[in-house]
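Friendly challenge for the regulars: who can give me the structure tokens for this chain first? No prize, just bragging rights.
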Amino acid sequence: MARPTASRPRAAAAGAGDEPVDRVAAHTGVGSGAATRRHTRDVLGVSPRAYRDTSYGSA
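First reply, four minutes later:
Bragging rights claimed.
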């Protein structure tokens, strides 16, 4: 499987609202929540939660 592009962690981090990262990862094709968290941190420099909070305000 090819490494996910930068748009996938953004979609996983931002488009999920209150969806668990594991569920979003499955929907975006990343595979697992751990892979999503690791890739989001590598690409964006923050966790999916931190990205959600700074991009859309904390819930």
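The chain is about 65% helix and 0% strand. The CA atoms of residues 40 and 50 lie 10 Å apart. Your move, everyone else.
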